[in-house]
Write a structure and sequence with these properties.
The chain is of the alpha/beta class. A hairpin with a 2-residue loop joins strand 3 and strand 4. The longest helix is centred in the middle third of the chain and has 27 residues. The strands form 2 sheets. It has a 5-stranded parallel β-sheet, sandwiched between helices. It has a two-stranded antiparallel ribbon with strand order 3-4. 57% of the residues lie in helices and 14% in strands.
Length: 197
């Protein structure tokens, strides 16, 4: 068990990345699972090419948009991709968490699919960044330029945000503007520091 690690999670387009940036500004170290996943994806090009075809490699890089469209519309393909990348991602996250534990200060581990990977990571405290489902859908369509149908597929591939909300140790409400989110991050920082004293 990682005593100081706190998972930062939420749903797609709920504002995890913005929250992670704000928490960094408030002094928290953040392990970024998405960044690790992108690095692992690039280092797994040969496996991706052999499993999915060379059309998913463009200009020496993984075509994440094309691969994303495939895996979010085909569960078997998504499971195949997860089989390739998840063990490597987990190894990197655990290695970085072990390093962070040495400082004996709370740190965050930004893991978008923490609840979907039940039991994979040994963290007991979780921050959930919450946005109501209708705002989540609207933000995803706008952010990624997706159709409503494509956006719904991506949201439905994850555990519903309402279920994640109920399992939070700390909840950050990101249903309003940036100023509100900043206040929420400050409030949760105080809660974390009070809980660790």
């Amino acid at each position: 068990m990682f005593k100081q690690g706190i998972v930062l999670t939420g749903g797609i387009a709920t504002g995890k990345s913005t929250t992670a940036s704000l928490m960094k500004l408030l002094g928290f170290r953040v392990i970024d699972a998405d960044k690790i996943a992108h690095e692992v994806l690039e280092s797994s090009q040969s496996e991706i090419k052999s499993c999915f075809g060379e059309e998913f490699i463009k200009d020496g890089k993984v075509d994440r948009k094309a691969l994303g469209a495939l895996v979010f519309s085909n569960k078997d393909k998504r499971l195949e991709l997860e089989r390739i990348v998840h063990p490597k991602i987990k190894e990197r996250i655990i290695s970085e968490a072990i390093e962070q534990e040495r400082f004996n200060k709370p740190y965050l581990v930004d893991i978008p699919l923490f609840f979907e990977r039940e039991g994979v990571y040994d963290f007991s405290k979780v921050i959930v960044v919450y946005t109501p489902p209708e705002i989540q859908l609207e933000r995803l369509i706008k952010r990624d330029g997706l159709s409503k149908e494509e956006a719904l597929k991506r949201i439905e591939a994850q555990l519903p945000i309402e279920k994640k909300r109920k399992r939070a140790t700390f909840l950050i409400d990101n249903s309003k503007d940036l100023a509100h989110l900043q206040k929420e991050c400050l409030r949760v920082k105080e809660e974390i520091l009070n809980a660790s004293n």
